[in-house]
Amino acid sequence: MTTQEKIARGKLSILELAEYLKNVSQACRINDVFRRHFYDIKKAYEEHGLEGLKDKTRRKPCIKNRVAPEVEDAVIKMAYEYPAYGQARAANELRKGGILVSSGGVRSIWLRHNLETFKKRLVLLEEKAAKEGIVYTEAQLTALETAKRSRESNPDEIETQHSGYLISQDTFYVVS
User: What is the reported pTM?
Assistant: First the structure.
């Protein structure tokens, strides 16, 4: 039984007690409830049953800076169609199409869907293509080829058979 159900059940018990005692004042004194509140409980129960006795919050739900679902879908679609676009360019391209979202909004959506980096967008694009058998567009092929070339020509990463196998020596000789 949830907390709201327990509270509703407690409110119902005062109604049952008043009926049993045939005295509203005494039931209110026993449960430490004002008579006006008793009649509010009674009216809610008569109109809506047990559901009417549950506590209702007046707060509006505050969803953290969320955009409309159709905007979010458009941003995700843009990330798959043009994985090389950064957040600013994606926002600008969407704006041209009539979808208003800031570059920070694009980033937030990408973070929620694990698309925040170029590498992650490419990996998810390849997974989606493998699952659904989609045909790559020209922009997608260009992005995939660019990533492949950068992996092959990255000077920071040198592949060797064993660690310490590759040695480099730089010498400088000055004649005076």
Answer: 0.52
Taking CB atoms within 8 Å and a gap of at least 24, the contacts of 63-71 are 65/105, 65/108, 67/101, 67/105, 67/109, 71/99, 71/100, 71/101, 71/105
Contact 90, 106 (CB under 8 A): yes
Which residues neighbour 143 within 8 Å (Cβ) at sequence distance 6 or greater?
82, 83, 84, 118, 122, 125
C-alpha distances out from residue 135 to 44, 128, 138, 139, Å: 59, 10, 10, 12
Q: Is the pLDDT of residue 41 over 90?
A: no
Residue showing tokens 């989606």: 128
Does the pLDDT at position 52 exceed 90? no
Domain positions in the chain: 3-53, 69-151
